[in-house]
Amino acid sequence: MGSHLDVVDWPVRTERLELRRFAPDDIPRIFAYRSQRSVAEWIGGTTTDPGELAERFGDGPTAVIVEHEGRLIADLMVSVRDAYAQREVAGAATASEAELGWTFDPAYHGQGFATEAIDALFDICFDRLGLHRVVATCFTDNEPSWRLMERVGMRREAHHVKDSLHRDRGWQDSYVYALMADEWRALGP
Fold first, then answer.
1. What are the structural domains, with CATH classification, of the chain?
2. Are 57 and 22 spatial neighbours (Cβ–Cβ below 8 Å)?
3. What is the pTM assigned to this prediction?
4. d(CA 120, CA 19)
5. Residue 160: helix, strand or coil by DSSP?
């Protein structure tokens, strides 16, 4: 089975970045930053072995790699799914939204790369995949992530109370952010 991302003409270039599909030989570089304690604090699972990470990524049907000057600096997730719909109109909601995620190498923080990469990801989602909406979720204590969501124009839709279990911190609150295609277009270039 293919990926929704297969329809995109890769790579996608911005002023400073190149976004491309995941390849298995990306694992060592991804492992190098995902295994850092400051990164592992907020991602879905710790990584202690490159082989385990390779299994989790599988063939990378939702993974997009971000490179700067030929160096892998981040991995992004675009998980396309059906939006909720009543049965009579369910076909129109098929593959109409995506959950987004991102993990950036801390060595590249503070240089505007995350904002640039997520802007390009919106272009992929809305213009190339024709999605209606994108969403992203994070722990409320992961301030850099929700600040990025706000910086790129996403709107906070929900503050869930103690709905997410963190491996070290116990039950934590989470935020849900979203952006609709028409909102993104209204933001302009």
1. 4-137 (3.40.630.30)
2. yes
3. 0.93
4. 8
5. strand
Tokens of 112: 């505007």
Q: How far apart are CA 155 and CA 149, in angstroms?
A: 8
Q: 157: closest CA among 136, 184, 182, 176?
A: 176
Residue 19 amino acid letter: L
CA distances from 167 to 22, 98, 105, 113, 171 (A): 27, 26, 21, 28, 9
Closest CA to 62 of 150, 149, 121, 123: 121
The three-state secondary structure class of 24 is helix
Rg, C-alpha atoms of the chain: 16
Instruction: Please tell me the distance from the alpha carbon of residue 103 to that of residue 76, in angstroms, as a whole number.
Output: 6
Measured between alpha carbons, how far is 51 from 88 in angstroms, rounded to an integer? Answer: 44
Residue 48: exposure state from Cβ atoms within 10 A (0-12, 13-18, ≥19):
exposed
Q: Which helix (H) or strand (E) holds 146?
A: helix 143-151
pLDDT 10s digit of each residue in the chain, 189 long?
578 999 999 999 999 999 999 999 999 999 999 999 999 999 888 878 899 889 888 888 899 999 999 999 999 999 999 899 999 999 999 999 999 999 999 999 999 999 999 999 999 999 999 999 999 999 999 999 999 999 999 999 999 999 999 999 999 999 999 999 999 999 876
